[in-house]
Amino acid sequence: MISRRSLMGTAAALTLALAFAAPAAADPDTALAELQKTVLSKGPSGEAPAPASDVTLTDEELARIKAMNATAAIVMHYGGNDWSRAQINGLQTQFAAMGIKVLAVTDAGFKPEKQVSDLETIMAQKPAIIVSIPTDPTATAAAYKAAAEAGAKLVFMDNVPTGFTAGKDYVSIVSADNYGNGVASAHLMAKALNGEGEIGLVFHAADFFVTRQRYDAFKATIAADYPNIKIVAEQGIGGPDFPGDAEKAASAILTSNPNVKGIWAVWDVPAEGVISAARVAGRDDLVITTIDLGENVAISMAQGGFVKGLGAQRPYDAGVVEAKLAGYALLGKAAPAFVALPALPVTRETLLDGWKAVYSTEATDNIKKSLGQ
To answer: Is domain 50-176+315-341 annotated with CATH 3.30.450.40?
Structure first.
C-alpha cells in the first residue's frame, strides 16, 4: 500500500518538476491574429506610433496646397525592389492629387556617398519638399541638414539621420511595424517547422534602424515563444549585391550546419539569395521566412516552394501618408513625430488579398499563374 507520505512526496516532486519544465510553445495562429490588432514598433527616439488614419487633409487644406504650386523630390536609398517602387507610386499618386510637382526620383544603390551627391544635385532645383530614406544615418546627416537649412521640408521613410529631432529638423517619419513584422516572420517560421528544429539567420549588417528592429524581434520571439527552435548560425550581409551576398551567407550556414531546417532572411531580396543557395545545396525541404512581399518570393509561396510566409509592409499606403505629411509642413500644420502601419502576415492562402493590401492593385499574372489561376 502506498502511504500518504509517499503520495505527498510524489506530488511535491511533480510540482517541482513542472516548475523547472521548459515553457510551452506559443500557438502561431493565435499569435499572428493578435499581432494584426496592434503596432509593436516605436520610433527612432522611442516615439509612440500614431495610426495612418490620423493623417488627413480637408478639402479646404488641399485647395490651399494646390494653390502653392509646390515641388518635391523623392530620394531613395535603393530603387531595385517592389517595396521601393510601391513607395514611389504612392508618393507620386498623392502628390499629383495635391498639385505638387515631383522634380526628381533618385536611387542611391545603397551607397551613402551617392545619396549625398543626389541630395546636393537636387537642392540646385530648390524643392519645397524632400521625402527620403537615408542609406546611412550618420554619413548622410550633414547633407540632409544642409537641405533643411536651405528650406526643404523633410519627411522620412523608416530611418532618420543621426542627431535629427522631429518637428525641428524634419516633419515626421513613416514606417511599417517593422518590429511586428519580425515577430510575424518568427511565428510563421515556427508554424512551418511545427515548433521545433535548428535555424539560421541572414541579417543586415548595417546601422539601419528598421532592419535591426526586424532582426531583434525575430530573435526575441523565437527565444521567448519557441523553446524547441534553436538559432545555430547567423550571417550578416552589407550589400549592395544583397542576393549574391545572401546566397553566400546561406550556403555557409547550410554547409556548416547540415541539420538546419529553416533560414530567416531580413527582407525579400536577400531571401532570393537564400532560395538560390537552397537549390544549389539540394535542400528542397528548407523553410524560408522573410519580410516584404516582393514578386519573386510571392511566386515561391504560390508554388508551394521554399518561402512559407512573410511579414509584409504596406509601402503604397506609406507613400500616400508621407505625401500628406509633406502637405502638413506646407500648411504649418502640426504633425505626429512617428506614424506606423500595422504588420501584415502573408502566406500562400492569403497571398492575393495580401498583395492587394500591400500594393493597392491586383496580384501580377505571374503570381496568379503560380497559384494555378
So the answer is: no
CB neighbour burial string for 48-84, b if at least 16 within 10 angstroms, e if fewer: ebbebeebebeeebbeebeeeebbbbbbbbbbebbbb
Beta bridge partners of 341: 176
Per-residue pLDDT of the chain (373 residues; tens, 9 = 90+): 444 344 334 444 444 433 344 457 889 999 999 888 889 999 888 999 999 999 999 999 999 999 999 999 999 998 878 889 999 999 999 999 999 999 999 999 989 999 999 999 999 999 999 999 999 999 999 999 999 999 999 999 988 999 999 999 999 999 999 999 999 999 999 999 999 999 999 999 988 888 999 999 999 999 999 999 999 999 999 988 999 999 999 999 999 999 999 999 999 999 999 999 999 999 999 999 999 999 999 999 999 999 999 999 999 999 999 999 999 999 999 999 999 999 999 999 999 999 999 998 999 999 999 999 8
Q: How far apart are CA 268 and CA 281, in angstroms?
A: 20
| Residue ranges covered by each domain of the chain | 28-38+178-314+346-370, 50-176+315-341
CA distances (Å), origin 204, targets 29, 148, 288: 27, 29, 16
Q: Which fold has domain 28-38+178-314+346-370?
A: Rossmann fold (3.40.50)
pTM of the model: 0.81
